[in-house]
Amino acid sequence: MNILKLLIASLLASQIFAAQGADITCLSSICSTGTCPKVPTVPAGLSWQNGSINGNCAINNCPANTSSGLVNASNPFCTSCPGPTVNGVAAVFVNIGFTGCVASTADCYARPAHTWTNSDCLACYGKSSQYTQVDKNGCQANPPGADVSCSAATCTTAGTCTAVPTVPAGLAWQNGANSGKCAITSCPASTSSGLTGASDLFCQSCPGTPNGSVQAVFANNAQTGCVASTATCGDSRTANTWTNADCLACYGNSTQYAKADKSGCQATALPSSSSSPSSSSTNSMIILSSVLFTISFFF
Ligand SMILES: *[C@@H]1O[C@H](CO)[C@@H](O)[C@H](O)[C@H]1NC(C)=O
Ligand SMILES: *[C@@H]1O[C@H](CO)[C@@H](O)[C@H](O)[C@H]1NC(C)=O
Ligand SMILES: *[C@@H]1O[C@H](CO)[C@@H](O)[C@H](O)[C@H]1NC(C)=O
Ligand SMILES: *[C@@H]1O[C@H](CO)[C@@H](O)[C@H](O)[C@H]1NC(C)=O
Ligand SMILES: *[C@@H]1O[C@H](CO)[C@@H](O)[C@H](O)[C@H]1NC(C)=O
User: Which of the 8 DSSP states describes residue 20?
Assistant: First the structure.
């Protein structure tokens, strides 16, 4: 009976108090604040004690989950008390803000130049800055644009790439991820509408919402959005290639029908198009003949 009580008590204890942390090395084998880095101030009660290997140090009692909710955490603390592993990456680095131990592949504060990835940005900064910059040297709120080809590799020089939209403000070209290419520094959250002065080149770097498999990489006729047309909405389009879907994408619903010779778009549908199912007389003919067919069955 006493053994049972002891067993229950130790089970309860193991639920409340997590285990001693993993070993780290401090400045000396005397494990204390002073020789070891400061412990987080939240949660309370954390301290360094002798590690499992002689001369090493470890956190006395790791909180159950160190991924968030800490104050003044550090890399050595996170090495001793990691957060949950994500996709095989151990959570041994302190995040930006010192509030959690996160699964970044390198130090959130000091890392080799140009080594940021989207997943490391999300781990270190959270959702407010989850995209790597084009040159992978930092993180930003919005995704960078895709690489495109401008007239030269001097991407920031005015005139090299087509001028950026004037709305929203703050758009700019910079050198792309690949040598010789250019990219928009930071794409607006949506480029499907609300732009002023959009171009095909801009839409290639910051596409709008695709329509099925058709990517929205062309500026609409009003240059207000990047739309899912199968070819450019502009003058350089191959002659006589307009379709109803492209007219709708490029011109909107005021001019959504391709002309008979596909040379452009117009406001009204072509007369008596055989492919159009919208004729109500055709529908009633189908219904009538089905009814007659069904009735004829019974005689
Ligand atoms: C911790 O380690 C130090 C140095 O190895 C040793 O002097 C000390 O007695 C140890 N303390 C405990 C509580 O084991
Ligand atoms: C740790 O805490 C975070 C946020 O508080 C949560 O999303 C995650 O699921 C927790 N992980 C474990 C293993 O409990
Ligand atoms: C602890 O964190 C607070 C703010 O969260 C900061 O002002 C302070 O400098 C930190 N202390 C140490 C020792 O890092
Ligand atoms: C998406 O494509 C389909 C097929 O081409 C077309 O019928 C439809 O109008 C398109 N939708 C939009 C929103 O452009
Ligand atoms: C055309 O589009 C506008 C907004 O883009 C919408 O308010 C209107 O209902 C549409 N008209 C038709 C006939 O679909």
Answer: -
Amino acid at 55: G
Q: Is residue 179 in a domain?
A: no
Spacing, Cα 74 to ligand 2 middle (Å): 19
Least confident of 84-93, 132-141, 190-199, 266-275: 266-275
**Does a structural domain hold residue 37?**
yes
User: Are 156 and 172 a contacting pair, CB within 8 Å?
Assistant: yes
Q: Is the pLDDT of residue 185 over 80?
A: yes
SS3 282: helix
Which residue is associated with the tokens 């003949």?
289
- Closest ligand 2 atom to 83 CA: 1
Q: Rounded to an integer, what distance in angstroms lies between the CA atom of residue 4 and that of residue 16? A: 19
CA separation for the pair 196, 73 (Å, rounded): 46
Please state, in angstroms and rounded to a whole number, the distance separating the CA atoms of residues 277 and 182.
46
H helical segments located in the chain: 2-16, 75-80, 118-125, 200-205, 244-251, 280-297
Distance CA(100)–CA(155), nearest Å, equals 39
Round the CA-based radius of gyration of the chain to a whole number and report it: 32
Closest CA to 110 of 96, 122, 100: 96
Phi then psi dihedrals of residue 288, to 5 deg: -60, -45
What is the domain range of residue 41? 1-103
43 belongs to a structural domain: yes
User: Residue 7: what pLDDT?
Assistant: 40
Give the pLDDT score at 239: 97
Segment 208-250, tens digit of pLDDT = 999 999 999 999 999 999 999 999 999 999 999 999 999 999 9
Domain count, the chain: 1
For residue 76, the one-letter residue type is P
Token pair 């909710």 is found at 69
Q: Which of 33, 46, 72, 77 to mutate to test the pocket of ligand 3 (most atoms within 8 A of CB)?
A: 72
Is the separation of the CB atoms in 243 and 258 below 8 Å?
A: yes
Domain assignment of residue 150, yes or no: no
